[in-house]
Amino acid sequence: MRVPLLDLHGQMAPLRDEILAAVTEVIDSTQYILGPKVEQFEKNVAAYCGSRYGIGVASGTDALLAALMGLGIGPGDAVLTTPYSFFATMGCILRLGASPVFADIDPVTYNIDPERMTEALAQDAKGKKRIKAIIPVHLYGQCADMGRILALAKQYNLPVVEDAAQAIGAVYPMKSGGQTVWQRAGSMGEAGCFSFFPSKNLGGIGDGGLITCNDPELAERIRIIRVHGGAPKYHHGVVGGNFRIDPIQTVVLDIKLSRLPEWHRARRRNAATYRSLFAQTTLLENGAVSLPEAVYEAEGKAAGEGEDYHIYNQFVIRAKERDGLLHHLHSHDVGAEIYYPIPLHRQGCLAGLGYEDVSFPEAERASRETLALPIFPELTGEMQDFVVEKIAEFYRR
Ligand SMILES: *Cc1c(COP(=O)(O)O)cnc(C)c1O
Fold it and tell me: How far is Cα 162 from Cα 136, in angstroms, rounded to an integer?
């Protein structure tokens, strides 16, 4: 049996006619740049996320870049972020002439650890006070600890840009005045950045991204930055870029957005299936494998709240002899992947910039020990049986 890490055929097949009709309408309209279809999608995503504004851009990377530009991040500034994420999180900081300051991750959620952030911020406050913003990443589809992150941001008066590329729709239990309000990824900080890369839970037929925010002035600045900083057209008070999303993407994404809750449910069902399959083996007891934890789930269930505590963009396990297991799975046609094999502070583009001496042990350990298994919504129970059996087989050898 072949089990791919991701197979988009099953998602596209039932939507194909609807999508072709919507794309044809865009083609026939000749409105190929921005316009009402883009605006409709921006409104729909903002509403889904519980944010006031949505600004569609060409990718998740451009969302991060435009958000940081909108907040005025530039040369000499530093941005506090996680050392364990997709490269774009750090790349955008560096592209603006700013530099990343890292705080290690929590080993359970793989998200930035507020304890380590507290230390980094205290150290920065004693020194040059270069940190001008914070980028938490909601990795694999589960929110970072935003309550504590926002408290730190408030204490140091820093804006928070949520990298929600992997977490559209994921909820977080925000405590305020003795009450818990379940808030969606991207609606809690100054800005939220989303990606519609095809492998994300909401994926287009190409690249796409979006920024959510609640401040009308920031939204307006980002809108202007999206079109070269021209406002009015041909009058450039600031330097922006061409960060636009195409309507041909937004009509596809709008159709898929309506299916997103059911796909999230299917991913969670697959996660539950993995849990029960692994529980039938000795792999958890003997410590060969440990499974991802949905840390807000119990609280959410107790409160009878929504259900998107974890949207499982990836189902990431820790495994003994990880590289051997990966090879074993690949040799049996099971898709699995390492996200991410090299932590950000060890990337070559930082060579000579003073990151050689720093160490983030949990990020480094995650890079050595973790492995993503197939979790896409259309994955079958048979496929999951096969995946878990192949993993068990590796440790029986
Ligand atoms: C996918 C992703 C991005 C970048 O999105 P693109 O649309 O590929 O540019 C940024 N951050 C994280 C955490 C991602 O997973």
Answer: 5
Binding site membership of 89 for ligand 1 (Cβ less than 6 Å): yes
Answer yes or no: is the C-beta of 370 below 6 A from any ligand 1 atom.
no
Summarised one tens digit per residue, pLDDT across range 121-173 is 999 999 999 999 999 999 999 999 999 999 999 999 999 999 999 999 999 99
**Domains of the chain, residue spans:** 9-257, 260-396
Q: Give the angle subtended at the CA of 328 by the CAs of 325 and 332, to the nearest 5°.
A: 140
Asked whether residue 176 carries a pLDDT value surpassing 90, the answer given is no
Residue 60 Cβ contacting ligand 1 at under 6 Å:
yes
Distance CA 143, CA 192 (A): 12
For atom 2 of ligand 1, the residue with the nearest CA is: 165
Query: Does residue 81 line the site of ligand 1, with CB under 6 A?
Result: no
Whose Cα sits closest to atom 6 in ligand 1?
A: 60
- The residues that bridge with 160 in the sheet, in sequence order, are 134
For 9-257, CATH number out of 3.40.640.10, 3.20.20.80, 3.90.79.10, 3.40.50.720 equals 3.40.640.10
User: Which region holds residue 73: left if phi is over 0, alpha if psi is between -120 and 50, else beta?
Assistant: beta
Secondary structure (H, E, C), 2-39: CECCCCCHHHHHHHHHHHHHHHHHHHHHCCCCCCHHHH
Cα-to-centroid distance, 61 and ligand 1 (Å): 6
The predicted model scores a pTM of: 0.98
- Give distance in angstroms: CA of 203 to centre of ligand 1: 11
